[in-house]
Amino acid sequence: MLISTKTPNTLLFLSSLQIISIGLSVGATVPTYLYHNCTNATTYTPNSIYQNNLRNLLSSLSSNASSEFHNTTAGEGSSSPVYGSFLCRGDVNTTACRDCVTFAVKDVVKRCPVQKETMIWYDECQLRYSNRSFFGTVYERPRVSLLNTANVTNPNQFNLIVNTTTKGAAAEAAKGVPGDKKFGTKEANVNGFQRLYTLAQCTPDLNASSCGRCLTDAIGRLPICCSGKLGGRVLFPSCSVRYEVYPFYYQNSSTPPPAASPPATPPPPGFTSSTKAKGGDDITTPESLQFDLATIEAATNKFSADYKLGEGGFGEVYKGTLPNGQEIAVKRLSKGSGQGTEEFKNEVLVLAKLQHRNLVRLLGFCLEGEETLLVYEFVPNKSLDYFLFDTKRQEQLTWAIRYKIIGGIARGIMYLHEDSQLRIIHRDLKASNILLDTDINSKISDFGLAKMFDIDQTRGNTNRIVGTYGYMSPEYAMHGQFSLKSDVYSFGVLVLEIISGKKNSSFYETDYAEDLLSYAWKLWKEGNPLKLLDPTLAQSYSENEVVRCINIGLLCVQEDPEDRPTMKTINLMFDSYSITLAVPKQPAFYNRTDADIPSMKFDDSRSVGFPVSINEASISELYPR
Known about the structure:
This protein is of the alpha+beta class and 625 residues long. The chain has helices at 49-63, 94-111, 155-173, 208-226, 293-299, 341-352, 384-388, 399-419, 474-479, 484-500, 516-525, 543-556, 567-575; strands at 12-14, 33-43, 69-74, 82-88, 115-122, 125-130, 143-151, 183-191, 194-202, 229-235, 239-244, 308-312, 315-321, 327-333, 362-368, 371-377, 423-425, 434-436, 442-444, 451-453, 459-461, 481-483, 589-591, 599-601, 616-621.
């Protein structure tokens, strides 16, 4: 799709971004290419002094890639000096920054083989060099605008929120003197189930005034390129701004925390609001998390049946209210867990330190007499299965809410796999373990089955199979082999359940398919993936989003764990429509027997694949001639 504009400086239109393969190899991560510009006004000849200086400059940039920003000069005092710099996005870690810069210094000379002035942007970093010094000066050309072509339903209100929030991020980024980190993020509520995320950044060699001026001009370009669009960004050599309706930056980075958001609008009909949990206690020792039994009994009316929320394989769950008004959920663990007191306390301490918006927060524990209790934040809107698999309630789960839930689950699992203190494999991801909070954010619960590892250990074996059939990966159900990819498989099943409104373990579709996974696969193979969609959604959905989610779900349930993407890659797939998804193979699926004991059958046939639209476009504005 071509993007039209009346802006005279727009010289080039692209129907989509140049993209990279998502099948990343083990080792360095390939950065996400965005755009580049090489002006032909000035070129150099092979084996010239300039080329030799350029080689030295790129080597210097690569060797200094452990920092967020670096500028340098090669051949200063000679007849052909070269000035260069790189800037990494303010929230990426040192490894990602180094990988991006290392890749960029090789990639840029392939794209711009003889040009003296170049500018290249990736999602994670940017690199620039020139035969003229540009340090400490604002440059707004060449400039590129990227946008998501999907429209918002209320553009005037949305544009106002975008303008206010990006200005807030820009104000945060412009603080400080040259050399300070010029990076800021801000968030805001768009409605009851959607948030806006914005980012602003300048090169740190600018002073506060110059950075502010650059970002003001960049924000001023957003209405021109991206008015009423779900996402957009403007890239200048000296600064950039971006907004999306998903968290595209790392929220647990060392960047300043986002400002408090406006009060959320009421939840959709059928959902409830709740007293917000009050937290903030210092979590340093098990004792700081310990509740006394009398407090818990008073909160739950001595575990009254009227307070009971549900029951799982590891015990009953009760709602309670503490003296300060905070609502809690108390899991009363079954007696005889076999775990020692100190081991239990230390495990609780680790779990309590897990802080993520898509995880149910563990507040503490109680060990008194024969009682073993875990105290969690109370999540008011019950579990996902309560709505998803009920023919009356599932209508309350609009596509926008389902898409938000899928994204939240993906971010929560990625946190467990990649960003928490230890690598954690949940091992029992299912719809009943996904809770919904006041703002319909998905929260992963029940880490009682999680297997915690040292940071470099990602797989293991067990003789005790724990989990839920229908969500278990085949290698785990059959052989007890679990890994991070076991959770990826369960996530894939969840995605297909959320899209279809059907439960994998009780799926029945005559002779067409024996289970949900094979049903989804056959529809995909025939080129009719939208037939999988829950009929209650009618026309209120994004075709691109649904097809993309089905593609991701099928990739997650591949028979070979090596064919399944990592959760980091999955989040990248959700976050950017400029990434081409791999074509799935036939998934592993359950052939349920009369005894309800799963046996596995596989087929090596491959899919032709269903075409997926790339719903992102770019507008580039080059140097004036």
